[in-house]
Write a structure and sequence with these properties.
InterPro entries: Ester_Hydrolysis_Enzymes, GxDLY, SGNH_hydro, SGNH_hydro_sf
Radius of gyration: 23 Å
CATH architecture of the largest domain: 3-Layer(aba) Sandwich
Domain SGNH hydrolase-type esterase N-terminal: 27-169
GO molecular function: hydrolase activity, acting on ester bonds
Helix content: 25-40%
CATH superfamily of the largest domain: SGNH hydrolase
Keywords: Signal
Order of helices and strands: HEEHEEHEEEEEEEHHEHEHEHEH
Largest sheet: 6 strands, antiparallel
Signal peptide: 1-17
Number of helices: 9
Distance between the termini: 90 Å
CATH topology of the largest domain: Rossmann fold
CATH class of the largest domain: Alpha Beta
Shape: globular
Strand content: 15-25%
């Protein structure tokens, strides 16, 4: 009888301790929109899309759809929570043969430590459009600054960040990303992030962490064809440097027709802002498919002619980066002969960064 009473008391104490522990470690959620958003060109009607619907009305239909995806947008915040969770809603489930689910629809968390951004963990994607995932746990309780990248090839309608009930979460007192300095990158699927393993491995995100500048990802998969509505939009986006990595998508004939008026207009509207022109990456499958190889060669020849024409006309603040300097020559930088692996993104970031630094240093 005495044993039964003691057993009941012990069980009750264990239940009470578990409830107290759960209470101390229970999660509260905050709307990510109340924290610090970076990687956005301008304010938009839907907070996690890249271009406002009204500003996109004259753009090609494909660009309008891709502009609703959240590539390059990130949340900066500080917290002393020992764990971080996230709840996010996707507009649709996505399947892409050349990308991981966690890259196209998941989240990617970094922490600023010892003067640099360090990878922490990812918000994994489960089946369905409503996501609720633990990202990291068992951290110490010091205040740390975090950056949470949003999906590369999907949208987000809602995002909440979860922390311990007893912890705090705020906008950073001293953001490690200087939003007063901006690099705007316009380009193809490579810019948008295909085929990074996770959102933070897209090369605009790498440039952001390396420079400490706000980098705006205006990559539109298969649809960066230098139409004039895009030039007009870019000219209204505040920038310290424009990077035009848009040669993979248009045909050689489209480049010959469109690139000069596109870049000329952008320069005339923003004459003091440097423009970095990037050739298309070499297509690895172009070594075997002669038609692909010839097209890439003609694309780069066409944009080179535009660059030389602009230089002859005395256009200042334009810089040029050749294809052979972008992803190496060991044929290990792509996933499918076209889109980049994390290795490829690291190499293209390595190649573009010195040109951006030079352009900013010589900015007139």
């Amino acid at each position: 009888m005495k044993y039964s009473v003691v057993k009941i008391i012990c069980c009750s104490l264990l239940v009470l301790a578990a409830r107290l522990s759960y209470s101390q470690d229970s999660i509260k959620y905050v709307d990510a929109a109340t924290l610090m958003l970076i990687g956005k060109a301008k304010i938009t009607d839907s907070i996690y899309q890249r271009i406002d619907s009204m500003e996109a009305k004259d753009m090609p239909q494909a660009v309008k759809g891709l502009a609703k995806q959240s590539a390059g947008i990130a949340i900066l915040f500080e917290t002393n929570s020992r764990s971080i969770r996230a709840k996010w809603s996707l507009p649709k489930e996505v399947y892409l043969h050349n990308m991981t689910p966690d890259a196209h629809s998941g989240l990617d968390l970094y922490c600023y430590k010892a003067g640099k951004w360090q990878f922490v963990s990812i918000g994994r994607v489960a089946p369905g459009i409503s996501q609720n995932q633990l990202i990291v746990q068992n951290m110490d309780n010091t205040v740390k600054q975090f950056m949470l990248y949003l999906p590369l090839y999907n949208g987000i309608s809602q995002l909440q960040i979860g922390i311990q009930n007893t912890a705090t979460i705020n906008k950073p007192a001293q953001p490690a990303i200087n939003i007063a300095k901006r690099i705007v990158v316009y380009g193809s699927s490579v810019v948008q992030g295909a085929s990074a393993s996770r959102a933070g491995m897209a090369y605009p995100a790498m440039l952001q962490r390396r420079t400490g500048y706000d980098v705006i990802n205006l990559g539109f998969s298969g649809s960066a064809k230098m139409e004039m509505p895009l030039a007009k939009y870019l000219a209204t986006v505040p920038a310290d440097c424009y990077v035009l990595d848009c040669i993979p998508n248009p045909s050689p004939e489209e480049i010959s027709e469109r690139s000069y008026p596109f870049i000329k207009y952008l320069h005339e509207q923003q004459p003091a802002i440097p423009i970095v022109m990037v050739e298309t990456i070499f297509r690895q499958n172009g070594l075997w498919d002669q038609q692909v190889g010839n097209t890439v060669k003609r694309q780069n020849e066409a944009i080179r002619k535009t660059y030389e024409r602009l230089r002859k006309e005395g256009v200042k603040n334009i810089y040029y980066l050749e294809s052979d300097k972008l992803i190496g020559d060991d044929h290990e930088a792509t996933i499918d002969g076209i889109h980049l692996t994390d290795l490829g993104f690291t190499r293209i970031a390595d190649a573009i960064l010195p040109v951006i630094k030079k352009a900013l240093a010589e900015k007139k």
